[in-house]
Design goal:
- The chain has three domains: 189 residues, Threonyl-trna Synthetase, Chain A, domain 2 (Threonyl-tRNA Synthetase, Chain A, domain 2); 291 residues, BirA Bifunctional Protein, domain 2; 100 residues, Anticodon-binding domain (Rossmann fold, 3-Layer(aba) Sandwich), CATH 3.40.50.
- It is 35% helix and 26% strand.
- It has 626 residues and is α+β, with helices and mostly antiparallel strands.
- It binds one RNA strand of 75 nucleotides through β9, β10, α6, β22 and β25.
Length: 626
RNA sequence: GCCAGCGUAGCUCAGUGGUAGAGCAACUGAUUCGUAAUCAGUAGGUCGUCGGUUCAAUCCCGACCGCUGGCUCCA
């Protein structure tokens, strides 16, 4: 799963919207779970992962049975296991209330006590279709018609019969460690145009302890929620009167962004990137030519100035292209790498907004690489190298890598020709393999304009969010005539690679906060050192200490409030300030400061110069700890 | 956008068809303190907004705004 020396992790194939499974604690040989296959045969499952999946799936059936008994008017959708539980979709005229969920939970436990068997049956397709049609289970009929062969399996538990591949546990008495969590609307078969069903989510594990552990972790996750940390640490705010999905960065948050930008700016300059700046709005002429009005208009904010239509930029690419196009470029000039911390605005549906993870205005650490086809592979590799440095520097060791390719069945949906796509995919794939990353190939997941590599990071609740992205673009160079002069002195279309490493600063900061539970690495901490005089009598020497720290570029603050030291330390701890320096009688006499670290507590006194040396080293090295 | 839940002081949360409370934070004063909360006092809310029902609405109903968990979509 994890390649030696790298840190790639692929999550289970059916991700839950909630958290990952709690693992560990499984010591017995074999799972001890006997499952029943469609042909009636039984077998003990050895692997815990498989056992728990069956357990969850059977719990989903149990829930469907409970629902069908309590609410006979409810019809069945699908009910799979997820990475930490299960869900089942129901079609019902009135929504499930929280009271309904409680009743369903109770009913399930009652049915467990009845120890009802899961009985497999092999039916003819015709019989199954008739059976479900008679029961009014039209969704099941649709599924069977589409998915089943001539013979198919169904399972009966109580009065519930479900079209299902199995296997299942022997009887409901084997189940019990579960909890129903919430109800959500979910479109039938994931299509927005289909009717919306009601999905009931639950968690299920092999033991009650694991269920509890999961709930505890949910509670823990709430504490590292970036929205809470952002407020508590005074980093950013969102304002109802100003609009949803628009982030206001406070001084401390802005400082964090500044540090991140400084870091990445210098790394990019070292690697031959050049920084540009472009306006935030452009006339519709540009968006029309770029194709954004055809493909992205529903996400754009448009308005009018003196009878001309304008659009706020949803992407930086056309702007960078305008700069590239101001002169003819020889193949000798390439690659040209134009970078910008570019703020873009996109209309996002209100229901998808989420803290700073999904917003309507955000700043990308964007760059566009203009190169020749021959240079593409090296450029992609260079981007991946830099991406790895970024993720490592910020302490991320858990991420997913996807290679999104086009759908070869529907090539007409895409810009660019087959040769372009093949060449680009190969460059991406070769670079991934060179880096030794384990990745998932996502066929048909490419943008219409080109294939891409995405790196996704995981939030506190286990949800994956795209950060780094490397995308080829066959659309813009063509539409906006982006060329270079080849050795044969003819213009050739340039290869354009769009890339972002943080993805967006807003999103990356959210993930960073959740990753560190707010205790940001020293070099990123808005306040690095808090100087605490023991009482007002030592205000003057403490002030001197703070001043000396500031003079050498350390972000130090003095807590000059008339409070007890313990109180100040408590607040500093809650603010996750990396170092606290206590100054009192002893320190003044001995010409030292007493150092306290947020993780290690009191480290004792030492000369200020020694402390400065140590902390500057950590800052310079961008240590992720302390 | 859709489904469900929620919106009371800066924060966390009580509460009621008869115009609202606690803790923390803030402010004032006292205290001058040795590694996660010193004590006392003061002030602070058109109960998200707008409409409706009612003699009377923070509470009941509706719309809108915003937030949360999903779905669809995405950096």
């Amino acid at each position: 799963m994890t390649r030696k020396g790298s840190a790639v992790q692929i999550r289970s194939r059916l991700p839950s919207p909630l958290m990952h499974a709690v693992t560990g604690g499984w010591t017995v040989q074999g799972s001890g779970m006997i499952v029943r296959y469609p042909d009636g045969s039984e077998q003990e499952i050895a692997a815990k992962e498989e056992a728990v999946e069956v357990y969850r799936h059977s719990t989903a059936h149990l829930m469907a049975l409970a629902v069908s008994e309590l609410y006979p008017e409810a019809h069945l959708g699908i009910g799979p296991a997820t990475s930490d539980g299960f869900y089942y979709d129901f079609q019902r005229p009135s929504p499930f209330t929280e009271e309904d969920i409680r009743k369903i939970d109770e009913k399930m436990r009652e049915l467990i006590r009845e120890d009802l068997p899961y009985q497999p049956m092999i039916w003819d397709k015709e019989k199954a279709v008739r059976f479900f049609a008679e029961r009014g289970e039209e969704l099941k009929v649709e599924l069977i018609k589409e998915k089943a062969g001539d013979r198919l399996s169904c399972y009966r538990v109580g009065n519930l019969v479900d079209f299902c591949l199995g296997p299942h546990v022997q009887s409901t008495g084997k189940l019990g460690a579960f909890k129903l969590l919430n109800v959500a609307g979910a479109y039938w078969r994931g299509n927005e145009n289909n009717p919306q069903l009601q999905r009931i989510y639950g968690i299920a594990f092999l033991t009650e302890e694991e269920v509890q552990a999961y709930l505890d972790r949910l509670e823990e996750a709430r504490k590292r929620d970036h929205r809470k940390l952002g407020r508590d640490l005074d980093l950013f705010s969102v304002h109802e009167e100003a609009g949803a999905g628009l982030i206001y960065w406070h001084p401390k948050g802005a400082l964090l962004r500044y540090e991140m930008e400084q870091f990445l700016r210098s790394e990019q300059v070292e690697r031959g990137y050049q920084f540009v700046e472009i306006p935030h709005i452009a006339k519709s002429d540009l968006w029309r030519r770029s194709g954004h009005y055809d493909f992205f208009r529903q996400n754009m904010y448009v308005f009018e100035i003196e009878e001309d239509d304008y659009g706020i930029k949803p992407m930086n690419c056309p702007g960078h292209i305008l700069i590239y196009r101001t002169k003819l470029h020889s193949y000798r000039d390439l690659p040209i790498r134009l970078a910008e911390f570019g703020t873009v605005y996109r209309y996002e549906k209100s229901g998808v907004l989420h803290g700073t993870l999904r917003v309507r205005g955000f700043t990308q650490d964007d760059a566009h690489i203009f190169c020749t086809p021959e240079q593409a592979y090296d450029e992609v590799l260079g981007v991946l190298d830099l991406a790895e440095l970024v993720l490592k520097t910020f302490g991320f060791d858990r991420y997913e890598v996807d290679l999104s390719t086009w759908d070869p069945e529907h090539t007409e949906k895409y810009a660019g020709g087959a040769a372009d796509w093949a060449h680009a995919e190969q460059a991406l794939q070769r670079a991934l393999e060179k880096k030794g990353y384990e990745y998932r190939r996502m066929v048909g997941e490419a943008a219409f304009y080109g294939p891409k590599i995405d790196v996704k990071l995981i939030d506190a609740l286990g949800r994956a969010w795209q950060a780094t992205t490397v995308q080829f673009d066959f659309n813009l160079p063509q539409r906006l005539e982006v060329h270079y002069i080849a050795p044969n002195s003819k213009p050739h279309p340039v290869i354009m690679i769009h890339r972002a490493l943080f993805g967006s600063l807003e999103r990356f900061i959210a993930l960073l906060l959740e990753h560190y539970a707010g205790a940001l690495p020293l070099w990123l901490s808005p306040v690095q050192v808090l100087v605490i005089p023991i009482s007002e009598r030592f205000l003057a020497p403490a002030e001197t200490v703070a001043l000396e720290l500031k003079q050498v570029g350390i972000r130090a603050r003095l807590d000059d409030r008339n409070e007890k030291m313990g109180f100040k330390i408590r607040e500093a701890q809650l603010q996750k300030i990396p170092y606290m320096l206590v100054v009192g009688q002893k320190e003044v006499q001995e010409k030292t400061v007493s150092v306290r670290n947020r993780f290690e507590g009191d480290l004792g006194p030492r000369p200020l110069a020694a402390f400065v040396e140590e902390i500057r080293r950590h800052i310079q090295q961008r240590s992720t700890r302390p």
